[in-house]
Design brief:
Layout (H helix, E strand, L loop, with lengths): L1 E4 L6 E4 L3 H54 L12 H59 L3 E5 L5 E4 L1 H7 L3 H4 L10 H15 L7 E6 L4 E10 L5 E10 L1 H50 L5 H31 L8 E4 H18 L4 E5 L6 E4 L1 H17 L6 E10 L2 E10 L6 H4 L12 H6 L5 H11 L3 E6 L5 E8 L14 E5 L5 H9 L3 E5 L2 H8 L6 E6 H9 L10 E6 L7 H9 L4 E5 L5 H11 L5 H4 L11 E5 L3 H13 L3 E5 L2 H10 L4 E4 L8 H10 L8 E5 L4 H10 L3 E4 L4 H14 L1
Parallel strand pairs: 9-11, 15-16, 15-17, 17-18, 18-19, 20-21, 20-22, 22-23, 23-24
Antiparallel strand pairs: 1-2, 3-4, 3-7, 5-6, 6-7, 8-10, 11-12, 12-14, 13-14
Amino acid sequence: MQKQILPVNGWTLIKYQPYKEFIAPLSGEFLFWFIVLFSGLVAFIVLIYWLTNRTFINPATEFIQHIENCAQGDSGKIKPTEDWRHWFHVVEDIFSQNRSLMQQLKDKNADLDKLVKEKTQDLVETSEKHQRDYALLRSVMNAMQELIIFSDSEGKLIGCNLALEKFVQQKEQNILGLKACELLPQPMCASLHELSQQACNDSQQKAYQRVLKTSTQTFELFSRQFFNESDTLLGTINIFRDVSEAYAIQNALEKAKNQAEHANQAKGQFLANMSHEIRTPLNAIQGMMYLLAKTSLNKAQDQYLSNAETASKSLLNLIDELLDLAKIEAGKLPLFKTDVVLDQVIDKALKLNVGKALEKNLPVNICIAEDVPQIIYSDEVRLLQVLTNLLNNAIKFTHQGEVMLTVEMLSIANEAHIQFSVVDSGIGIAQEKQASLFNAFTQADESMTRKYGGSGLGLSICLQIVKLLGGEMKLTSEHTQGSTFSFSLPLANVIADKDATISFQLISVDTHLSSSLVATMAKHNCTYMPLANLSELESVICSTHDNDVLLLNVEQVEKLAQQAINISDKFKLIVLAIPMLSEISDNISLILEKSDINWIIAEAPIYRVILTQIEQALNFEEGDKHAIEGGESEQLNQPNLLLVEDNLVNQMVAQELLQSMNANVIIANNGQEALDLLAENNIDLVLMDIQMPVMDGLTATREIRKIAEFEVLPIIAMTAHAREEDRQHSLDAGMNLHIAKPVTYEKLLSSIKSLLVEK
């Protein structure tokens, strides 16, 4: 149907055409084009599919498969086309890098897991340790009896221990944040506040301490800063320690100490008095023996007198030992080192002990190495004291065998030392008893005191003396096997031996000399000729020299007379070897006097000292004992001496000694008489005793010094008071010198001369 509007009249013209006529041509044409278009579309789709499938889907499928293979680690199954090769390689590189990164990540993860595990373990251990430490700290704090307070910088309590809880009767959690002053008594509070503030403000972080007392207790307070781990100040730790008992003990000890000091002073005074009472008669005895020695005596009497002098010195040594013990205990034992003739010291020690050895028929031998110097720098009195004690003990505890004293040189740490050893074959000392042997008043067995006697002081004093001399003492012993006591002394100043002034040849008949003595003789250019009997002597006489010395024993002297062997003018000196302390018969003395040869006595054991005796005898003319020893000392020039002494025997002895020195002596019986006599006489020097009636020596000296005329008058204390403090008292009173009794001629003369020269 078509519709058309007429322009003339506006009518609408509708034209109808049958459907079949209209649609038939259209349907055919449409169908054609539809088929054409559909076929083309199908062909296009097929083409597109084929192209897509070839260029994208298949490569993409292979690419996806390749990705899956690469993911599984197998990248070589599919070979890509040329266009896709680049992407395949990219994927391979990506997966390779990914696998590498994954491995690294895995390794890192494993390391991290391990580190985390270690850190976790460390944290666990640290936490456990902190818990243990805290528990331990709390346990220690709570176990302590001291009151422990932790306070901050404002003085508030931030911690405490169980003791403080009990002291304030409150639990810790109830008092945290409170100030200590709210809990403690006032004395404790004030001290705590002051010390904790000082500690908090102290940049040097030192501890503060104070002792304080409450009404019932005494405390020591310690206060110091404490910090956290970053060194931030947290406050102070304060500790109250109850020292009430300790202070009570200290007071008791102080009281006991004072009592002990008073007792020690009493003991010292007792020893001083005892020393004075014994020294006074001993001074008279030794003075009388000295005066007796100046008379005409034969050689036998002279020998007896020498032994008596030795015995008196032994008694004096015993007194000195008691005084030395007191000095050692007080740490005041003095040393006086000088040049010491070693042989003389050994000879004195031997003579002091030989009597006991003779009673036991016990030989005592001396062996001195040839390199031992004759003169050493030491304290002669102390060295003699040690040797005397050791020899005395060795002889006391030895019943058979021998006692040997050896002296030799040692090198210790490249320094020269001289070693003395006393060896015996006695009862020995068990190992378990040796440690206490050097204690005062101690012996190896207390039963020994009853059996052997002795005070038990000797070894203790010896050990202390050796230590003071810079040496050390050793003991080697076994029970029943004998003992060896040895001590070594450093020789800081070794004094060279003087050359012998004369050489000689010593001819001995049936008398053995030790190898050490023979070696010493050779060192001094002296020769030694041993003979078995007198028959050999006759052949030697024809070839003797100017300085030949004949060594005989008593038996050989008797045979010499029996066989009528003429030795006159053949020998310069005869040395008679006899046992120590033995008697010489008048017959032996007569035989030797008839020989017209000077003779001397050598007591056994024969050792190096005999060389000095021979040299002295060869160098001086025949005379009495004192002339052989060097002659009388130079006399005084008739000074006027005032002797102030209350003991009549000591007056007589001192007067004889002083008059033998060519002095004029005026005697006063006490200090008051001395003052009176000084006013009446022209006195050059005063010899003053200390302990006297009416007026003692110290008071008299002070009174003398008050007189202007006598301010410089020489005054010598000559007293039985022998302690160092006694000497100091004399000097403090105004005396010039202090001489302890017994007084020797030489000591007295040298002292007087020294002061008169100064005057």
